[in-house]
């Protein structure tokens, strides 16, 4: 297994390559119908519970987070969330973000605790940091992008400090395949992406690829691609002044109307309404 010093060195090497981007950050009261069961998000989520109750499932772990806890919900992991009937739903800060090491997700490299209790004397400080993150995420400009990354890293630091190198993320071959998939999809979002094209790139039979995606990502390949397209579109709508037509083309939709319909299916809002609302997609 190696000694602790070697483990720390490996963690340092991994984190030195970290790329992180905020998709959106918010403070909201969940509604009594806050609920989604058995889905696989393409992005990570960080919650800070302020008040109320709720139920979460991440992989095979069921959680009932309490006020004063941080909760990490990694990308590409089967999960569910729900309000609890008869109980006040969560009042929480929450952030959707990407965090990658090379071409793989941070949490495929690290085993992190899904929930972390913040010490009582630090809770006000954590609330202030999340409030600042929410404010930065609502702004445009390079300065806001840099500040939001800094605040998110500060909020993630106590979670990562308790991390260990993952020994359950699959084989080296599996990790390499996931890196290839992520790299290929994210660098070809402006193009037509087909099941056969992705299978050819990975040198896999299309039927096997569908089975692999369902096992690893909880969804078929084209749905995964569409999730990635919408994730990129949300980021561009929130952080740039590019036109809807330009953003549609950048994520593989030459027809703006087709893009608008797909975006509404994913977020329950039109691209223009999403942008006007500052990128708030609902109670994520």
From TrEMBL:
Protein name: AraC family transcriptional regulator
Gene3D superfamilies: Homeodomain-like, Regulatory protein AraC
One example GO MF annotation: sequence-specific DNA binding
Coiled-coil intervals: none
Highest taxon above the source species: Bacteria
Keywords recorded for this protein, A-Z: DNA-binding, Transcription, Transcription regulation
Domain HTH araC/xylS-type stretches: 179-277
PROSITE patterns: HTH_ARAC_FAMILY_1, HTH_ARAC_FAMILY_2
